[in-house]
Amino acid sequence: MVLTFVLSMTLAACGGGSTQTSGGEGQTQEKPKFMSILTGGTGGTYFPLGGAFANIVSDATGIDTNAETTGASAENMQSIKDDKGEIAFTQTDIASYATEGKLMFEGNAIDNIKAIGTLYPETIQIVTTEKTGIKTVEDLKGKKISIGAPGSGTAANAEQILEVYGMSLDDIQKQDLSFDESVNGIKDGNIDAAFVTAGHPTAAVEELSATDKVVIVPVDADKADKLIEKYPYYTKEEIGSGTYKISAAVPTVAVQAMLVVKAGLSDEVVYDITKAIFENLDKVQHAKAKQINPENALNGVGIDVHPGAQKYFDEKGIKAAN
């Protein structure tokens, strides 16, 4: 009996039979049995990509992983802080605001997120239809305009674009609607236009183009330059002709979509997540997967990269562009 007791204590001390993994200071040592990927609304790009990523991560790691619909970027950052998810999609600008405690995170900095990497450009699309007569950003003044669901990053993009045109949210009849709600509102005539920050083509806008003649309001080059000068995480972007059945390309701006992870996950788990996603993109059916390249994943991240993800990029010789 004494020998049995000593043996059992020795095994316990060695971690025999546990699911523990090695990790850095402050990290969760036990491999989770379940993880949530926080995405966005069903009409955007995050949700379908998140579903595909969840399947890939589940198969590669053995951790039961699901994609959850959310209010997107800003809400996702708060949810990570509140331990309501382990992996999340967000915009690079929103992740920076979160870690720095700025704008919607003023007095509420998020200190437990780290980057996995950037994914693809998220285009700021100002969507309306021909029947509204809206052709320019200035035409939005006094109109009913959706700036995205509460908790999304779209509202910040809308406010900053209006700013470079000498306008503010007070100059429009602001509506806080998801992409699907925005499209339905435009269809029904309840709103006039909507800001949609998502990889294009966006499912909700494609749906609108099936019944109405879609107009994408341009962001003029000089205003884009002014925006980028003040907010350097923006880049110039173009929505090509034929997208949403538009006849000519439309200039606009974009931020980057990225994946973040709860900082407390072990290096081993995050390494496995990173490797699984970036090496199985051929299993993702969504068109945006073609724009995701691990070679670019450290460009424009803007926050600290999780050591587990960094280990993967180091093995591949991937560095951030200067």
UniProtKB/TrEMBL annotation:
InterPro entries reported for this sequence: TRAP_TAXI
Matching PANTHER family: SLL1037 PROTEIN
Protein name: C4-dicarboxylate ABC transporter substrate-binding protein
Organism: Mesobacillus subterraneus
Lineage start: Bacteria, Bacillati, Bacillota, Bacilli, Bacillales
